[in-house]
Amino acid sequence: MAAAAAVVIGVALGYVGWVVPEPGGSVVVPTAVVLGIGVAVTVIGAAVAYVVRPRGGLTFVAVMAVLTGLATVWTWALALPAQMVWGGGATAQAQVALRRVENGPKVRGIPRLPCVDVTTGRVGPLAAPYRECAVATSEGRFVTFTVAGSNPVRGIGYTDIGAATFEDECYRHLTGRWWTFVADASGIGSCPIGYRFHGGG
Predict the structure, then answer these.
(1) Which residue ranges make up each domain of the chain?
(2) For the CA atoms of the chain, what is the radius of gyration?
(3) Is residue 125 reached through a cis peptide bond, with omega within 30 degrees of 0 on the bond before it?
(4) Do residues 172 and 180 lie in contact, with contact meaning Cβ atoms separated by under 8 Å?
(5) CA distances from residue 145 to 29, 68, 120, 124, 178 in whole angstroms, order as listed
(6) What is the rounded CA–CA span in Å between residue 197 and residue 25?
(7) Does the structure show a pLDDT above 60 at 21?
């Protein structure tokens, strides 16, 4: 009974770790939320289980400790990459955006619609509204999806040139050609924990 309850709670923690992280946002805060919930539930559940059935309390604590650890790692390192893989065709969306600028109308060789505002749907973990901007040159091809109204600007990017896409920004690799980024708000290269800074030029 105690182990089954712990597993249910562990699944709930995994779900929280899935929905709380934001593209370009801190990974520390969501991870701390999941860890804090896991520890609080473990302590409260162990106290209740110990009063009702002492041996069940030990089982609950052991299972919850393992599941809290797994949920914490999931939130820190795996939830956003998993959403890019399982996010309903995010890579296909990026490739459509690249075709739009490569094959669409141009003015003096410059695409007329490099950026569009998307008001419905989602791309990976990023729900609309967001701004989609595509660039296709001989130096590289990339698409950025930025959170509407975010300050500093943050979002996710699909790129074939990696971190070089995010000049003067903080970046974190997710999976394959997908990265998350946030503008360097301080101007001195200080990035949220879990991100790296890429200087310009």
Answers:
(1) 2-86, 90-198
(2) 21
(3) no
(4) yes
(5) 22, 32, 13, 10, 11
(6) 14
(7) yes
SS (H, E, C) the chain: CHHHHHHHHHHHHHHHHHHCCCCCCCCHHHHHHHHHHHHHHHHHHHHHHHHHCHHHHHHHHHHHHHHHHHHHHHHHHHHHHHHHHHCCCHHHHHHHHHHHHHHCCEECCEECCCEEEECCCEECCEECCEEEEEEECCCCEEEEEEECCCCCCEEEEEECCHHHHCCCEEEEEEECCEEEEEECCCCCCCCCCCCEEECCC
Residue 186: both structure tokens together:
């301080």
Summarised one tens digit per residue, pLDDT across range 82-139 is 999 887 689 999 999 999 888 877 776 677 778 999 999 999 999 999 999 999 888 8
At 70, phi and psi to the nearest 5?
Answer: -65, -45
Query: What does the pLDDT read at residue 54?
Result: 65
Q: What are phi and psi of 26, to 5 degrees?
A: -60, 140
Are the CB atoms for 36 and 16 separated by under 8 Å? no
The neighbour count for residue 171, using CB atoms within 10 Å, is 23
